Amino acid sequence: MKRKLIFLSLALLFLFVTACSKSSEKSKNDDGTDEAFETVGVNEYGWDVPKETLKISYYAGFGDQAESDELAKPMEQFYKEKFNVEFEKIVYSVDMNERLNLMLGTGNYPEVITFMSDDMAEKFIQQGRAVELTDLIDKYAPNIKEQLGDYLNLMRNDDGKIYKLPVMWGENPNVAGWDFAVRYDWWKELGEPIYRTPEEYYQTLKKIMERHPVNEEGQKVYALSDNTQGSALYGAMLSAYGFKNGYKVDEKSGEFTHWINTPEGLEIAKYINRFYREGMLDPDFLNNKFEDWQAKVMNGRVIGNIGTWWHTWVAGQEAWAQQEGDAYNIEKRYINVTVKAPGVEQATDVASNFIGNYRVIITDKAKHPDRIMRWFNWEVSPIGTMITGYGVPGPDNVWDIVDGKWIFKDSALEYNKKNENFHAVREANGAQAYWMVTKSGWIRDERLDPRVTRVSVYDMWPINEEGDFLDEGVNLSWQYVDGKAWDSTLYTVTFKADNPISNTNQTIQDTLLSEWAKIITSASEKEAEANFLAARDKLNSLGLHDLERYVADSYKANLAKFNQ
Amino acid sequence: MQGSAAKIGYDYEPKPVSKGARKLRRLRREKELWIIAAIALAWVLVFAYAPMYGIIYSFFEYYPGMTLAESKFVGLKHYKDFFSLPDVWLIIRNTLVISTLGLTIGFVSPIILALLINEIRVRWFKRTIQTISYLPHFVSWIVVASIIFTLLGSEGFVNDVLLKLGWIERPLTILGEGSYFWALLTSANIWKGVGWSSIIYISAIAGVDQELYQAGAVDGLGRFGMAWHITLPGIRPTVLLLFILGIGSLLNAGFEQQLLLGTPKTREYHEVIDTYVYRYGIQMGRYSFATAVGFMSSVLGLFLVLLTNRISKKLTDMSII
After folding, report:
1. Digit-coded pLDDT (tens) for B46-94
2. CB contact under 8 A, A101 and B64
3. What is the architecture of the domain spanning B86-316?
4. How many DSSP H helices and E strands does chain B contain?
5. What is the pTM of this model?
6. Does 3.40.50.880 match the CATH number of domain A178-348+493-562?
7. Tell me: the pLDDT tens digits for A226-263?
8. Is a pLDDT exceeding 50 seen at residue A26?
9. pLDDT in tens, B175-211
10. Which of A12, A158, A255, B221 is deepest in the core (most CB within 10 A)?
């Protein structure tokens, strides 16, 4: 009896296991995709709604989890009701790279990781933690293929396979990039002398400083300040000299020369040092955090800016408009100006990196990578990008879908109230709450409101019938910006963890920052030159020439991949 | 005992007790103490000793996500890599200087403060001063850094006063000068920690026999003489103990302070082993390298503790081991 019972139990167990394995075999196709993914039909937003709720967990980088969940509530509800999709968005208040290293070490990570650096994506791929996407893209993501075009080749590895996709990609929607800004109202007092070269810019700032030595509280006014530990100063200057990502590129020979090894680099060093020696540069420029610098700008203590265009935009006119309300004078703003060194054909102030600097991968933890790819396909569609970037369409939001057109609310077009009527409103409606693969480049679609231009997930710019920006202030700020973007995509360089050049790169970056600080703060031009040459020797001894060769080789490899 | 047994009139020989049995007996006697210490011991075992197996990673080329078996054995490569860094001697110099300043000026300051506080006769004033002195210990370094920037920035309070007094014509760039960094850091460390560190010395001073002071007074010692000849010798064991333990941290010169107070211009003075390892080890995912340098610092620290302990034993007959 006992033996019979044992035999019966074993037989039942065997049947059970066989049935389970057969059913799991039945649920997967040969390519690992899921046959059982049933849908109920395409909704009004172009998404094929699944019968069973699609759940995706993803790590999105730095953030506060509670805040992220709160901001995502409108989108969470919208996606659940209309799309039958649920997201578990994970953020941590720690450096993303550190967290990713820990995730790799512990093997504890979600199905998707987005907004990761290219280096970290390569780490995951090297260790077999990323799912191959080549076939998935072919089958389920025609939008990705179409929109990325040849740039998709840059995502391929040496075997031609794709394991990662870009995030925040597309043509740069900004008008300005690096720039040489000046307080418009003070500049107007001088008669609006247009400056187009670094020397002219210096003269303009000097004249303004003579007229405005102190602010209303009697505090000293400076021509320039900084909040990037000095790095933006050389960044913007290099763009005026036509350098590309810090290198002088000889298109014929394919040689890349780091700016510290060029005569232009010395000119730039002397130029900035002059500001310091003449007391025109804020002495705390190396210590300023963004908030410290912003306070100085808002208190009218900074005349110009050699750096990033939006810094003075946010700290200047946006802040003043909010602070002063109806009393705000539109001419109290910074204008962004393209400056070129003499003899330079085109400044490289506006760089457009089509593939951006961030990547997304589907990890080996994903139960249904094909379903995730379907979602990616929808997210990069024009309507998907609009919803991702602007939140739930509706009368409460800045945009709605009216007779098939994507129309912005009138109040959202009031540029002087952009923060309260546009950014705050769309944020409250879930804008950018869930973002895995959407582009940040221009959204071009015939359904877009014809009253706006340069629409991206970041912003949109209203225009009038003549094609000028609706806001007079915007026209004022950008009238002297060339806005010609150069394609920096192929100049993207990946530094892999196991390549010693990564250490060389980091060492050079750190040393350059400290040497640059020494150069700018030299007491005399002679000392600045001596410090510059000493810095050059030091960096070259650290392997700068190897880095130059590596960057050049990366460019050639990208070019070959792109043209496949 | 045998003699008394003979006297009583019966044979008694105590049974020889083994070492193990003696230990067991002692354990039973002290079982309450062991129960109290059990949680702390468990914590030390789990968080201090168990992770030590990770030292093995310093001998492999480990990248997060790989197992040890998948990692290539590289022996002492990471240790050699550290010493072949271009700025290694700069980093070691900064570490040693900052630690030495902490071990000298920083070590002596709480003792001096404790002696001074001990001399205060008005009780409420003494307690008030003591409380105020250790409040900075609870302030985070982020706040301290903000205070320092506010005080010492080119538009800070100090420059403001000096300019108004006419002592300087242009603001001093104290925070931007590398040569001031060590003094600045040591001063900040002292300000933040002197009160808290003085507590243990104040308690040690309280334990000095009061009769000694009375005897000293009879011998004609003044207050300074009593401090020098009675108080200091009385707290010598405490001082030595803390000094020996402090020596072990010679290669740990701080981390937060350098990250918060350092600027690109002071890098030559503020870059220490811990900040370097954080950036080039932890942030870049080079855990093997970070482990190697950390292990090396710990071994050197242990060696220094043992050496100092031995010297102390020879010179003063006092030691912790």
Report:
1. 999 999 999 999 999 998 888 899 899 999 999 999 998 888 999 999 9
2. yes
3. Orthogonal Bundle (1.10)
4. 17, 2
5. 0.84
6. no
7. 999 999 999 999 999 999 999 999 988 989 999 999 99
8. no
9. 888 899 999 999 999 999 999 999 999 999 999 998 9
10. B221
For the range B128-133, what are the long-range contacts, defined as Cβ-Cβ under 8 Å and sequence gap of 24 or more?
B130/B195, B130/B198, B130/B199, B130/B202, B132/B195, B133/B194, B133/B195, B133/B198
Residues 6 or more apart whose CB falls under 8 angstroms from that of B276 comprise B85, B87, B91, B293
ipTM: 0.80
How far apart (Å, rounded) are the C-alpha atoms in residues B2 and A377?
Answer: 97
Quote the pLDDT of residue B9: 53
Instruction: Give the distance, in angstroms, between the CA of residue B260 and the centroid of all CA atoms in the same chain.
Output: 21
Q: Decide whether A34-172+357-449 matches A178-348+493-562 in CATH topology.
A: yes
Q: Where are the domains of chain A?
A: 34-172+357-449, 178-348+493-562
Question: Given a cut of 90, is residue A65 above it in pLDDT?
Answer: yes
Q: Do B267 and A516 touch (CB under 8 A)?
A: no
The one-letter amino acid at A453: T
Query: Is the minimum CB–CB distance between B86 and chain A shorter than 8 Å?
Result: yes
- What would the two tokens of residue A65 be? 């989890």
- Residue pair A223/A206 in contact (Cβ under 8 Å)? The answer is yes
- Predicted confidence at residue A336, as pLDDT, reads 92
Extract the tokens encoding A385: 């990008």
pLDDT of residue A35: 57
Cβ pairs bridging A and B (under 8 Å): 88
Q: Is the pLDDT of residue A21 over 80?
A: no
Cβ-based neighbours of B28, under 8 Å, separated by 6 or more: none
CA B225 and chain centroid, separation: 30
Residue A319 has pLDDT above 50, yes or no: yes
- C-beta separation of A209 from A189 below 8 A: no
* Chain B residue whose CA is closest to A124: B65
C-alpha to C-alpha distance for A420 and A423, rounded to whole angstroms: 6
| CB-CB neighbours of A457 under 10 Å | 22
Residue B95 contacts residue B272 (beta carbons within 8 Å): yes
Instruction: Tell me which residue of B293, B297, B291 sits closest to B64, measured CA to CA.
Output: B291
Which of B74, B265, B272 should be substituted to probe chain A, the one whose Cβ sees the most A Cβ atoms within 10 Å?
Answer: B265
User: What values do phi and psi take at A56, rounded to 5?
Assistant: -130, 130
pLDDT at A482: 84
Min Cα distance B254 → chain A (Å) is: 20
**Predicted pLDDT at A34:** 54
DSSP A261-327: GSHHHHHHHHHHHHHHHTT-B-TTTTT--HHHHHHHHHTT-B-EEEEEHHHHIIIIIIHHHHHHGGG
Residues 47-106 of A with CB under 8 A from B: 95, 97-98, 101-105
Q: Is B237 left (phi over 0), alpha (psi -120 to 50) or beta?
A: alpha
User: Inter-chain contact B263–A286, Cβ cutoff 8 Å?
Assistant: yes
Closest CA to A181 of A217, A150, A225, A125: A225
Tell me the helices (H) and strands (E) count for chain A, helix number first.
Answer: 21, 18
Cα–Cα nearest to A140, from A362, A373, A427, A484 = A373
Pick the residue from chain A with its C-alpha nearest to B276: A507
3-state secondary structure A173-218: CCCCCEEEEEEHHHHHHCCCCCCCCHHHHHHHHHHHHHHCCECCCC
* A513 interfacial to chain B (CB closer than 8 Å): yes
Torsion of the alpha carbons at A394, A400, A402 and A406, rounded to the nearest 10: -160
Q: What is the DSSP letter of A327?
A: G
| Range list of β-strands (E), A51-199 | 54-62, 85-92, 112-117, 165-167, 178-183
The yes/no answer on whether domain A34-172+357-449 falls in CATH 3.40.190.10 is yes
Please give the single-letter amino acid code of residue A164.
Answer: K
Question: Which residues on chain A are in Cβ contact (under 8 Å) with B279?
Answer: 506, 510
